[in-house]
Amino acid sequence: MRKIALVTGATSGIGKATARILASNGYDLIITGRREDLLNELTDNIIKDTGADIISLCFDIRDQSQIEIAINSLSGKWVDIDLLINNAGLAVGAEPAHEGVIDDWDRMIDTNVKGLLYISRILTPRMVARETGHIINISSVAAHEIYPNGAAYCGSKHAVKAITKAMRMELLPFGIKVSSISPGMVNTEFSLVRFKGDQTRADNVYKGLTPLYAQDIAESILFMVTRPPHVNIEDLVIMPTDQASTRDFRRR
Ligand code: NDP
Ligand code: 8X3
């Protein structure tokens, strides 16, 4: 029987690649994001390519009431989610904290931290009731390291690390796996969003090196979800070969 996965932030990058790989490997999917046109396009393409059953829910993960309406609209088999990929997230801006833009901080903390909590809060009780499930939080190397001009983003991903650990302890009695994956630089829309649409600045992030690609993270997620029931990968730190820390790169 096919399992059900819900992937947040599936309109782009890591979430989109993860949705595709899960659909090709036995999962029916609920995909989410704010850009409805992209959700519809991905739904059509995945159905065509894999034959998986897939539905999309369009909501802003920062808005708890939108989440409630969307999730409460689910019925039938879609109610029992086996795998939750908490992927929706972003970095915005790159200023030192003393020059930080309040709206940027709100967007990062509301999405990366509160959004992840909101969606987990509404979905985990049924996992608890069924005593089964797997939650994978897309964290970052920024949960393990700190770099200048990244106070709010690193803070938000350090929060994801703490939330992941707490959830693992809380859900232990119910046999629910809680994992995270902590990538270094992945070439997605991430830098374009961070630099507010400045394509040149975004391109410069990846200039002269080979970054990770969304597919690399999706394949790692597939590895995590295909371990046997007694194995839980707590956290997977995955870097480009050309990156040794958030501040050390090999550019040619
Ligand atoms: P992308 O910008 O390509 O994708 C981000 C996804 O998150 C989009 O699908 C976007 O959908 C969704 N999203 C953002 N804000 C919201 C919101 N308010 N409500 C609902 N969905 C939202 O970036 P990545 O794929 O790179 O990022 C995915 C995750 O990976 C993030 O958590 C990021 O922090 C993490 N990460 C990324 C790294 C990188 O270098 N790229 C490295 C380490 C971690 P939409 O705009 O349609 O709402
Ligand atoms: C994204 C990686 O180094 O830009 O989470 O923080 S980094």
CATH architecture level-2 label = 3-Layer(aba) Sandwich
Specify the number of helices.
Answer: 8
Q: Order of strands across the biggest sheet?
A: 3-2-1-4-5-6-9
CATH top level? Alpha Beta
Key terms for this structure?
single chain; binds 2-hydroxyethylsulfonic acid; 11 strands; Rossmann fold; alpha/beta; 7-stranded parallel sheet; 43% helix; 252 residues; binds NADPH dihydro-nicotinamide-adenine-dinucleotide phosphate
SSE diagram, text form:
Layout: E1 3-7, H1 13-23, E2 27-33, H2 36-50, E3 54-58, H3 64-72, E4 83-86, H4 102-130, E5 134-138, H5 151-171, E6 177-183, E7 186-187, H6 190-194, H7 199-205, E8 212-213, H8 214-225, E9 235-238, E10 243-245, E11 248-249
Parallel strand pairs: 1-2, 1-4, 2-3, 4-5, 5-6, 6-9, 7-8
Antiparallel strand pairs: 10-11
The structure holds NADPH dihydro-nicotinamide-adenine-dinucleotide phosphate (NDP) and 2-hydroxyethylsulfonic acid.
The site of NADPH dihydro-nicotinamide-adenine-dinucleotide phosphate has 27 residues, from helix 1 and helix 6.
